[in-house]
């Protein structure tokens, strides 16, 4: 079979298959061009899921007449400049785009019209490409003082087979909205608007650069609840900076769709970063719950390779362990600083369950005129005589003395979780705060406290190990065995002693005593899978946490046990002093706080 040189049109269509997978991909590339051009406002329109029409208008620097044709040639870009030796350095990329493939790839499979006015110029010009056939620049109207206007019609008309693989217009529109949101999160100083089929679905004004403006932008996209339940992340290590916001464990979701990761303001989908995020929350959430977070990694471009995939959605770090360690450490530090705090959405959900009720006599107004309503004593409701709530008047002192020379008295209602007032159904503690009511699940709360004590003891004394009578050899793929062996020191700290045993095998000598009789081979294989998927051996840590959690569950105060006032107040004070006590070992809240203002609204007092 002879070797042939492909024509430029075919080359462009092949490239378009990698760069422009769907309408959202085309919008991503065009918006990145706008941002690289310094745009402060980007307006996007899409019809029929972006397949019939896409329009992106910006107020960036624009282009001259001669640059229009260059912009539509493959591998022509303004974002790479040669150094003194005439070489182009691909390790110092400071822009979102740099390959020079997007516009020619789109133009090869669609009808594309590019209109621009250069900053400081009085003339605007337009150029059209249809299926790779380029026209000539000609004068055109442009509303702005400078910027660019990219219109794409009939996407993939030149490659009809690709249309068969598109999803519904609704699904493509959702993908477009998601892509625009990601770009808007990373560039809070730029305003964005999005219209789908003539309907405005997104309008984001420019925000002030910095943490406050970024939080406003994130809240506008993720919802107002995110601002109330987000923890500020701001850490640095060895030239790598991590900023952003992460949600409280009780503000978790059922899938990972609300995890947004950025590297040098570039939205990425990176398994290393996702694995680090999961590892940081592994101690607080069940496996079927996922944290909400928007994390921004900033580092020298030389320390990260963005030229991994044509879509630029994947990156490769020079020191991945440094980045992963920074993410895990920063998130755990922020979560520890949250103390006993729980998500505000817990109280909102509780309040939404209340419904105003009115009680009326069956005899109505005539009963009142006849002398009032008589109590109905003939009927006894089941359960009325059972104990459902109790309190100890003598022990419920609202204050306690301070020991010391000043002998000052503290009002317990001034504490964050207040003063215990009652125990309901021998399961829930009702406490009064200065401005509301707190309801505590005594079993879930004490379970978390016991669990945190066990973890602290384990950290101080190390994980006790048990030697296998006969060391077990576990056969793996050679690459998997090498990955596991490289983590031998990390696994030893968790009580698992291993060593390489020839190519493609691992020898297990000792396992954590907490696990009892365990399937060593299955554990090693799970660790190998975690290393391949997440870059971290999560399986062992999660198993140890599961054992500690089970032990804590059995060693904690059970539901149904009556507590004295002193015991209830002691539990509240310990919760306030213990990090992560706002959620149980499975990520569920341990308490609900109802503000007095919200309670008054339920009764129409506000």
Describe the structure.
This protein is an alpha+beta fold. Helices cover 35% and strands 23% of the residues. It has 19 helices and 26 strands. The strands form six sheets. Strands 1, 2, 3, 4, 5, 6, 7, 8 and 9 form a nine-stranded mixed sheet that branches. The protein has a five-stranded mixed sheet with strand order 10-11-14-12-13, sandwiched between helices. The radius of gyration is 31 Å and the shape is globular.
Average pLDDT score: 82
Alpha-carbon distance between the two ends: 83 Å
Strand composition percent: 15-25%
Q: Strand pairing plus helix content: what structural class? A: alpha+beta
As a percent range, the share of helical residues equals 25-40%
Summed up, the helix count is: 19
Strand-helix topology:
Blueprint: H1 8-19, H2 23-36, E1 41-47, E2 53-58, H3 65-71, H4 102-109, E3 111-117, E4 125-130, E5 133-134, E6 138-139, E7 147-153, H5 160-163, H6 169-186, E8 191-196, E9 199-204, H7 211-222, H8 224-228, E10 230-237, E11 240-247, E12 259-263, E13 266-268, H9 271-281, E14 293-298, E15 304-305, E16 316-317, H10 320-337, H11 344-352, H12 365-369, E17 389-390, E18 399-401, E19 409-411, E20 419-424, E21 428-433, E22 436-441, H13 442-461, E23 465-475, H14 478-486, H15 488-493, E24 497-500, E25 505-512, H16 520-534, H17 538-555, H18 565-577, E26 591-595, H19 596-602
Parallel strand pairs: 1-8, 12-14
Antiparallel strand pairs: 1-2, 2-7, 3-4, 3-7, 4-5, 4-6, 8-9, 10-11, 11-14, 12-13, 15-16, 17-20, 18-19, 20-21, 21-22, 22-26, 23-25, 24-25
């Amino acid at each position: 079979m002879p070797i042939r040189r492909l024509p430029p049109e075919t080359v462009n269509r092949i490239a378009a298959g990698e760069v422009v997978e769907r309408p959202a991909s085309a919008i991503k590339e065009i918006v990145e061009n706008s941002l690289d051009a310094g745009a402060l406002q980007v307006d996007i329109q899409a019809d029929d899921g972006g397949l019939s029409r896409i329009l992106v208008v910006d107020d960036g620097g624009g282009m001259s007449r001669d640059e229009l044709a260059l912009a539509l040639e493959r591998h022509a870009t303004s974002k790479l400049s040669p150094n003194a030796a005439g070489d182009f350095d691909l390790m110092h990329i400071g822009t979102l785009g740099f390959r020079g493939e997007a516009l020619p790839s789109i133009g090869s499979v669609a009808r594309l019209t590019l209109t621009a006015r250069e900053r400081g110029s009085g003339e605007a010009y337009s150029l059209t490409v249809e299926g790779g056939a380029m026209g000539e620049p000609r004068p055109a109207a442009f509303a702005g003082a400078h910027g660019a206007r990219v219109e794409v019609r009939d996407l993939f008309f030149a490659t009809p087979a690709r249309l068969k693989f598109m999803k519904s217009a609704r699904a493509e529109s959702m993908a477009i909205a998601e892509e625009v949101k990601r770009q808007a999160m990373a560039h809070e100083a730029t305003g964005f608007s999005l219209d789908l089929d003539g309907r405005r679905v997104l309008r984001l004004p420019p925000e002030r650069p910095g943490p406050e403006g970024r939080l406003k932008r994130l809240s506008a996209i993720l919802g107002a609840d995110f601002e109330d339940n987000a923890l500020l992340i701001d850490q640095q290590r060895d030239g790598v900076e991590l900023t952003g916001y992460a949600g409280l464990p009780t503000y978790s979701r059922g899938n990972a769709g609300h995890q947004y990761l950025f590297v040098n303001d570039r939205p990425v989908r990176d398994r290393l970063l996702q694995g680090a995020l999961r590892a940081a929350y592994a101690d607080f959430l069940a496996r079927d719950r996922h944290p909400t977070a928007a994390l921004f990694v900033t580092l020298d471009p030389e320390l990260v390779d963005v030229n991994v995939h044509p879509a630029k959605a994947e990156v490769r770090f020079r020191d991945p362990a440094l980045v992963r360690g920074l993410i895990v450490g920063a998130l755990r530090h922020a979560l520890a600083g949250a103390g006993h705090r729980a998500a505000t959405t817990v109280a909102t959900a509780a309040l939404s369950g209340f419904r105003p009720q009115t009680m009326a006599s069956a005899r109505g107004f005539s009963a009142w005129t006849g002398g009032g309503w008589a109590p109905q004593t003939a009927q006894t409701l089941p359960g009325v005589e059972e104990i459902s709530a109790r309190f100890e008047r003598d022990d419920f002192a609202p204050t306690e003395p301070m020991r010391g020379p000043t002998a000052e008295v503290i009002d317990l209602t001034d504490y964050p979780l207040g003063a215990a007032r009652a125990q309901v159904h021998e399961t829930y503690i009702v406490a009064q705060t200065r401005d509301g009511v707190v309801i505590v699940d005594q079993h879930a709360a004490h379970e978390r406290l016991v669990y945190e004590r066990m973890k602290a003891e384990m950290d101080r004394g190390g994980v006790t190990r048990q030697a296998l009578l006969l060391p077990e050899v576990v056969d793996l793929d050679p690459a998997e065995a090498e990955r596991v062996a490289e983590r031998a020191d990390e696994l030893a700290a968790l009580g698992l002693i291993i060593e390489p045993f020839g190519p493609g095998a691992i020898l297990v000598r000792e396992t954590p005593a907490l696990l009892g009789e365990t399937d060593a081979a299955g554990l090693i294989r799970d660790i190998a899978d975690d290393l391949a998927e997440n870059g971290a051996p999560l399986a062992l840590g999660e198993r140890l946490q599961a054992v500690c959690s089970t032990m804590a569950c059995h060693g904690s105060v059970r539901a149904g046990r009556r507590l004295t006032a002193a015991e209830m107040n002691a539990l509240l004070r310990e919760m306030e002093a213990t990090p992560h006590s706002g959620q149980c070992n499975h990520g569920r809240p341990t308490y609900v706080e109802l503000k007095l203002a919200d309670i008054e609204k339920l009764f129409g007092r506000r």
